[in-house]
């Protein structure tokens, strides 16, 4: 998967912001449609580059994450500081509704191992990241592509 310039939220000047209001509305619609309930909605902040919605669905929490710079969405079963468990969601209607407005990333994509070359301080995973982002990657040492797209770096 290509990691796009600015996806980490570092050294970004002219990237458009995602439509967070649309994302929030979609999450509430999905909750209503699925007989679920939104437990929380969190906006990006200094050490988190993504929106996070926690949805209770059939007595189980599921998280829907949206990158703050690009309209990329992922599902997670758990979101802890520096530890996200990315999953595929089984409700195809939820995925198709989100796919109309956002790119829904699969667990295979988000769990793809990040390939770092520590000898040359280069990233072997396909990318167009800027120097500030590459510096952050070598500082924080994320393990997966998902850890870059949805990060807790400050």
What labels describe this entry?
globular; 154 residues; 5 helices; two-stranded antiparallel ribbon
Count of folded domains:
1
Rg from Cα: 15 Å
Structural class: alpha+beta
Shape descriptor: globular
Ends distance? 24 Å
- Name the helicity range: 25-40%
What is the overall number of helices? 5
Count every beta strand, where a strand is a DSSP E run of 2 or more residues.
8
Low-confidence spans: pLDDT under 50, at least 5 residues? none
Q: What does the largest sheet look like?
A: 6 strands, mixed
**What is the string of helix and strand elements?**
HEEEEEHEHEEHH
Beta strand %: 25-35%
Mean pLDDT: 89
Short description:
The protein is an alpha+beta fold. Helices cover about 25% and strands about 25% of the residues.
Folded structure, characterized:
- The protein has 154 residues and is an alpha+beta fold.
- The radius of gyration is 15 Å and the shape is globular.
- The chain has helices at 20-33, 92-99, 107-110, 131-140, 145-149; strands at 37-42, 50-56, 61-67, 72-80, 83-87, 103-104, 116-117, 122-123.
- Strand 2 (50-56) and strand 3 (61-67) form a beta hairpin.
- The chain starts with 19 loop residues before the first helix and ends in a 5-residue tail after the last helix.
- The chain is built from five helices and eight strands.
- The chain has one domain (20-149).
- Helices cover 27% and strands 26% of the residues.
- The strands form two sheets. Strands 1, 2, 3, 4, 5 and 6 form a six-stranded mixed sheet that branches.
